[in-house]
């Protein structure tokens, strides 16, 4: 048995006026709870350190940059890294990253149990739009503030497992999981900020939005015989509701833990990485069963081309 006790640290809302220090203190409190339950890995949401700022239209790049981190760890996040090291807990955190040469990414990092960063993933699938959209009930300006990630979908060996990361909208794209599946991934950790309301179809409803989120993660877990841990930042951020629905999914696609609130809430599950073996050796033994001669369109064509 290769067991990792994983904490999915769902976070409640971060208001625009909340300082990084106040937010990090909440994250440390979740980490302490995780330690008491024996976790060796805790996963935090996308853009964990700030409000979901892409809902706000900004013209001034200096203002935009106030939502980004120039280095990690930094002064505000050091208490989290220090406590994680003392407790021997690996962490995965999402944040807005500004690189020394001025690039902007939506990023997630993974540490080892000594709080050393061993992996960095930059969000590939950026939803939303670049310019102010008058037709939406509210804005989703990820394409304005971030560049598409340049990392691809790497995996890392840590805690005797093969681990990969995704960020929010990435969780809806089967290609992303499959690229990691082809590297033997056994655990996909991901954070998200998903508005409770569809800005382009208000009638959609929360139930369907939660269903689509869960469907994406459970299907991918089964089809790649991997654990998936999806962690929300939820609740009302300055009048804009984000849905919860954080889950831990086993390699058969079953949800083994699910958040019940839209606040700070820790889900814990002892995840046995050896549960991935059966699926990987049988129905999803890629080496024996995949037919790559028929998959070319997936990488040669982006959009739909219908027959004449
Ligand atoms: N953060 C993020 O990627 N949210 C998207 C919302 C899509 S609506 C523009 C998501 O897929 O959950």
Short note summarizing the structure:
This protein has helices at residues 20-36, 61-65, 78-87, 142-145, 174-181, 206-224, 277-281, 286-289, 296-300, and strands at 3-10, 41-43, 90-98, 104-111, 117-122, 155-158, 161-167, 187-192, 227-232, 235-237, 240-242, 247-249, 255-258, 265-272. It is an alpha/beta fold and 308 residues long.
CATH class: Alpha Beta
CATH H-tier superfamily = Carbon-nitrogen hydrolase
Assembly of the depicted chains: single chain
Number of helices: 9
Runs in which pLDDT lies below 50 for 5 or more consecutive residues are none
Please give the alpha-carbon distance between the first and last residues: 54 Å
Instruction: Output the CATH topology.
Output: Nitrilase/N-carbamoyl-D-aminoacid amidohydrolase
Overall pLDDT confidence: 98
List the ions, cofactors and other small molecules found in this model. Answer: 4-methylsulfanyl-2-ureido-butyric acid
With strands numbered from the N-terminus, the spatial order across the biggest sheet is 5-4-3-2-1-14
Global geometry:
globular
Protein name: N-carbamoyl-D-amino-acid hydrolase
Keywords: Hydrolase
GO molecular function: hydrolase activity
Domain CN hydrolase: 4-275
């Amino acid at each position: 048995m290769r067991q990792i006790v994983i904490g999915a640290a769902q976070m409640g809302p971060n208001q625009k006026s909340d300082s990084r220090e106040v937010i990090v203190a909440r994250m440390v409190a979740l980490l302490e709870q995780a330690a008491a339950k024996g976790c060796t890995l805790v996963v935090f949401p996308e853009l964990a350190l700030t409000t979901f700022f892409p809902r706000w239209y900004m013209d001034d790049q200096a203002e935009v940059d106030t939502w980004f981190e120039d280095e990690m760890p930094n002064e505000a996040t050091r208490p989290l890294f220090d406590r994680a090291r003392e407790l021997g807990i690996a962490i995965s955190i999402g944040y807005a990253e500004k690189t020394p040469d001025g690039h902007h990414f939506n990023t997630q990092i993974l540490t080892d149990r000594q709080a050393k960063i061993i992996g960095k993933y930059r969000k590939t699938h950026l939803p939303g739009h670049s310019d102010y959209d008058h037709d939406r009930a509210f804005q989703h300006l990820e394409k304005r503030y971030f560049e598409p990630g340049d990392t691809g979908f790497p995996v890392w060996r840590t805690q005797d497992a093969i681990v990969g990361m995704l960020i929010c909208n990435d969780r809806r794209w089967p290609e992303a999981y499959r690229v990691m599946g082809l590297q033997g991934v056994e655990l996909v950790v991901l954070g998200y900020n998903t508005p409770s309301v569809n800005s382009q179809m208000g009638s959609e409803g929360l139930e369907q939005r939660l269903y689509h989120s869960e469907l994406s993660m459970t299907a991918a877990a089964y089809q790649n015989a991997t654990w998936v841990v999806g962690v929300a930042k939820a609740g009302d951020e300055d009048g804009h509701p984000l849905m919860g629905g954080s889950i831990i999914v086993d390699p058969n696609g079953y949800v083994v833990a699910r958040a019940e609130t839209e606040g700070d809430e820790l889900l814990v599950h002892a995840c046995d990485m050896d549960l991935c073996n059966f699926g990987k050796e049988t129905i999803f033994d890629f080496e024996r069963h995949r037919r790559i001669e028929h998959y070319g369109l997936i990488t040669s064509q982006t959009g739909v081309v219908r027959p004449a």
